[in-house]
Structure formats: C-alpha cells, structure tokens
Amino acid sequence: MTITATVDRPTRPVPTASVTPGTTGAELLLAALVKEGVDTVFGIPGGANLPIYQHLPDFPLRHVLVRHEQGAAHMADGYARASGKVGVCVATSGPGALNLITGLATAHFDSVPVVAITGQVAAATIGTDAFQESDVIGSSLSVTKHSYQILDAADIPSVVAEAFHIARTGRPGAVLIDVPKDVQQQRVDAVAEPIQRQRPHRAPGRPDRSQLIQAAGYLKSAERPMILAGRGVAISGGQAALRELAESCDAPVGTTLLGTGIFPSTHPLALGLVGFMGTGYCNRAVTDCDILLMVGMRADDRVTCRLDEFAPRATHIIHINIDPAELGKTVKADCQIVGDARAALEELHAQLAAQSRPQWRAQLEAWRVAHPLRHPNNGLLQPQEVLAACYARLGPDDITVADVGLNQIWAAVAWTGDRPGHFLNSGGQGTMGFALPAAIGAQAAFPERQVLSVSGEGGFVMTLQELATAVESRLPVKAVVLNNRQLGMVRQFQDDFYGGVRSQVDHLLTPDFVMLAQAFGCFGAVVHQSSEIGPALDAAFAHPGPAVVDFEIDPNANVYPIVPLGKGLSDFVECPRS
Amino acid sequence: MSPPAIASPPLAPGADGLTTTRHPGRIRLISVRVEDRRGVLQRVTNLLGRRGFGIETCAVGPSAEPGVVAISLRIDAGTQAHDQIVKQLTKLIDVVSVEDITSSATVEWSTALVDLRSDEVDQAFARLPDGVGGQVVRQAGARTITAISGPPGPVEEALTELRRRPSSDWICSGPLALNTGPGGASAPDPRGRSER
To answer: Lower Cβ count inside 10 Å, N or C end of chain B?
Structure first.
C-alpha cells in the first residue's frame, strides 16, 4: 500500500499577500478575528491552543474564561442569538474540543452563526493517538455547516474569512476551525489569497416572483388564512413585513418556539405558540385554515404533531424557507418558495390589497374563549405567576433565555415581548443546561441590559458551574430556577403517556440554591409562596452582580395544552378546570 | 507479453451500456462533483449515512476538470424521501454539483479484475453475458488476471457465474455513471446552485 501525503488544496493559488515577516499563525488567527468584527470570545486555554493565548493580550478582544467548554459554545450561541453577530468560542484539543460538540449542535440546529476554534495536536502527530488528540473534524461533521483543519499558517486569514462568511450567510450555522499547535507557532512572511471555489457560497437570490404571485393569489382567495412563522423571519429582519402581511390579510399568526417574539404577543392576530405544547386556539386555527403560509420555519414533528392530521382542511400550503432542503421534507407544501423570509413577505404584501375576514376573526375569538390558557389555583406556587412577575420587571430591550423542559414552554407561552432576539431558547436540540451560559453570552453582547435565565433545577445544575464565569467576568445575569425537584417534563410524559410509572424523575437531593449561589459569590434567594415573589425578584434585580432565585413551585405543575404523542394538533388536552 | 485486445462478444439489444438505465424508485443514481479537498469523501458519505441513505456502490476519481473529483453513487434511499439526497448534498460547501441521474440518459459502466486459473480463462470468457467484454491483463504461470467490463447488470451476472468457480477471486468497481442527455452531468445548474 502506498501512502501519500495529503494535500489540502492542490489547486490553490500561490500566496501573494504579504504580512509582517515572521508573523505567527496564532497572531494571524487573532488578527483575522478582529478583522471580522469579533469583540468577545468565550473559551478555555489548554495544551494545544496556548500559542493563541500567548498572543491574546496583544489584540483588542475580550476573553470570557468559562468553566466548561460546553458553556463556551452556549455563550457564543447566546451572544449570537441576542446580537445577530457571529459568536466565537475557543477550546483546546481532545476533551476541550469534544466538549464543544453539544453546544455547536445546539447552535447549528437552530441556525445560529457560531465559529469554534479548536487547538489540535501538532500536525505531524495527527492520527497517532497523541496526548489529547481527538478527531474533532470527524466528531463535528453532523453538527457544523463546514469545518477546516489548517495545516499551513499561510491559510489562516483566508480560512477565517470564509468560515465567518459561511457561518453568517444563507441559512446561518456553526463552523469549526481546527488549528494544530505547531501551525499556531508557524512563522510566515506571506499569506494565501482568499479561497476560490468552483461554486461560491452565496445566499439565495430573491424568491421567485411568479411563485409569490401564485401564493398571493391563494391568500387573496382564502376564507380562513393562517400564518405560521419561525426564526427565519427574525434572522432576515422580517418581523415588520410579517406584521404588515398579517394585518393586510387579516390572517392570524402562530409562532414556533424559536419564533417567539417575531410577532407581538399582544396583537389581536397573535395566536401564540403552535404545536405539541402550543395554545389550543392556535392549533385549532391550523387545523381549520383553508390556506396555510409557513415562513422561516422547518415544520418539525414538535410543530406538526401527527403529520397526516396537520392542516387537513388547507387547500393550499405555502412554505417559504431559505434552505431548499427544508421544503417538502415533512409537510408537503404545494407552493414551495426558496428565499429570504423578509423579501418574500414584503413581496407578498405588495401583491395583496387589504382584506378583512370578520367571520374567520369571530371564529378565532370563539376558540380563544373556549380554550383559554389555564393553570391550577391550588395554593402552591405556580410557574405562571413567577414568570409574570419576572416579565413585569423587564424593559423592552431586556432579554430572557429559557432552558429546556416545562420551564421553556411556560416561559415562551407567557412571554409578553414584541420583538425578536429578546426571548432565546434551544428549539431544535432541546439542550438542557442551555439557559445560564447562553444568558451569560447574551449579557456579554449587551452589558447594559437585564438578562434573565429561566430554567428548571434539572437543567440548571447541568451547567451551573458557569455562575463562576458570570461573577468573575462581571456579567450580572439573573437566574430564575423553577424548582419542582424533578425532571418535570419527563415526569409529565410518564404520567400521561407511559402508564403513570414515575421512574427516575425525582431529584431526592436538590442543592440549597441560596447557599450554592453564595458559594459562587452570587446573590441567592428562595421563594416558597406568591407573596415572596416580588420582594425576592426586586432584591435580585437590585443586586449589582449575578443572582439566583430558587422558586419552589407546585411539583405537579404541568404544561397545558399538550397534544398526546401520536395525536393530531386538534387533539390537544387542556388543563383540568379547578 | 502484451494483453490481447478486448474480446467483446456481440451486444444484445439493451445491454450495450449506452441505453437509458432505469432503477426501481428507491435506488438512485447520483452524480456528485466535489472540490478535491482533504476529507471531502468523508463529508459526503457521513451525510448520506446519518440521513438514512445506504450507499450500495461508490466510484471516485478525477474528472475532466482540474481540482474536481467525480463521484458516482448508487444509493438505496429505503423509505427516505430521495429528493433529500440532492438537497442535502448540495448544502455541503465542498460540493460543486449534485445530480440525480436515475431517470436520465446515462451510461453506466463497471469493471472487475478477475483472478482465474489460466486454463479456465477461455471458458470463462466464452460464458460472459452479452455486453460484457473480457481482457487478459497479466498472465503469470498458472494464474491469469483478467479484466471484464460492461454495464453493471451484465457484469454482476458474470461475477455471479464466477462465484461458482472456487478457484477464482475478483474485485469489482461500483458503476461509473455519465449523464449523456441534454445538460448532462457536467452541465452547471441553471439556478447557479447558490442555496445552502
């Protein structure tokens, strides 16, 4: 067998751009980050990225020292979701790089632009099972949009430029750059030209106009039009266009979890969350509509529930997404439009004269009355009253980051904001432990805003070591823990769908969160009853640093409505009347 | 010793490798052209595998265009929506073009190297199905290495026949596929394939 040396780029042009002779790869990398507009990076130094950290103090970059690399990836993610800029995380080789994977998957799944920079063992030792070697390229293939392993420092500027372009262009996503330690130390006198590709990476052009005219025709002819919208609308900056179109068509708007905030929650046409744990009136409207427009969303199984009962009365389904692979993947829309959500919504709006549909609106109002959001009134602390008190203390610019589980749905459904980028959560991956580090990342992007992390005690303990990061880096997030002393959503599933067998869901030991908060140098408080909510929150918000407030909520509080597994959207089960 | 010319028996209609090949719906013939970068094959195969597409055959090699590698894949889409093969592969940054040529006018061609007992070569060649040619590549005493090539179906048939000869050994390439219709495999996508 013959083994030949691998060549990264056989057709690449000869390096021409000159740099200060003797510049190291690490310096090129840091300079390239600054050139991309990066101001903050989240990371941990280690054996294989020390050359980068050696030169870090020479560059105008804020480094947030995290306690676990998963936290770094979630912080970069939260930073990106809040700011719309590319988030950057840094890890060393081996376990450091692998610890990023969950965070990269979380970001990538939700189309969040994140660039991860990993150290790698020296190029010559790659593939020899060297100390702290891991195949991070192979391990991250399914959770990144693209990845690079740089074997020549001269390639660093062009690779970083392309990586950021790919991360933020089209459907955004995660990109990983793996840099062997010796490449970080390699000195170069010239660097490679920008990467030339046979097929350059570009965002799709304007959506097809003839298809939009056809879609506008469907909406115009509709008696019961319905709009579902997701994060793509926020990414494209299409929230104003969405509102104008909805008002013009007199069509109600439901949103996905990631779409929370893209349509004002208090708007008369707002139906709130759609899907598995969506509002009853939204799910009824989807089931009954005759024309359905889905924009900037994937329509996964949490949205559609039983696919063959999704929008069964719709004569036409219009699906707009920037990623053609999402069209026809689950819901087989007959009108599939590739393109930017905002451009498509604006063109649709331009095609349509204002219409009013009083009969449909009356029906929607009737469903609102018939299926109100309810929660028990049993004297125990209810999550809804906690969240209402939290949200009442937030200004329009402030940010809430929800974790995953019951807390996430409660927080999303109760959300009262009217702009995207202010309610963040992990939708696609559903990564428990996301909220605290993502909130820290959002706080780093907007130091002057109040940033709230909402989680259950289950998810909170998965990443709570980042409280140290928050205190040390003066990122004063306020952590709200909705503590039911159990894995609540799993418990609800076991109660409702798995024969009522409660198996391994009780946290017989939950830490004393007040002492824990104090141990990290945070403010800590515990709340057992409604009357204590306001004072505890006021004290937490008044504290200049990070705070943890433990809310001992009703252990049997559930999410309602909920669509039983295997059922259609209209089969939702509501909260029993108390 | 120079190998003799290809001994090509007369071709039966439809077995000439030049007519349109059609597969059952779940079997897809995919032509992918990728930039010649390290790890690109891993990206292609990883994506197909994790999305539930089985790779039946895969032939990889240089293309007419410098720096571009051509990959011919025969994929069992199983119960998956097969349009996702092209849509998802198109999203890979290193992919230059992807085309599902299952229903296109294509030429498919497979080649096998067959190790035979020298005294069995003539008989083996005589039994080759219509459309399959045989050639002696190297003769070394009692063993002869031959190459047989032709459309994938008849070549598979020939190899099935060779399985009955316990003294033989062979290796077969996956089919190479070339779109011969209008806007063939090497033609750029009219939409510019900008979407990722």
So the answer is: N
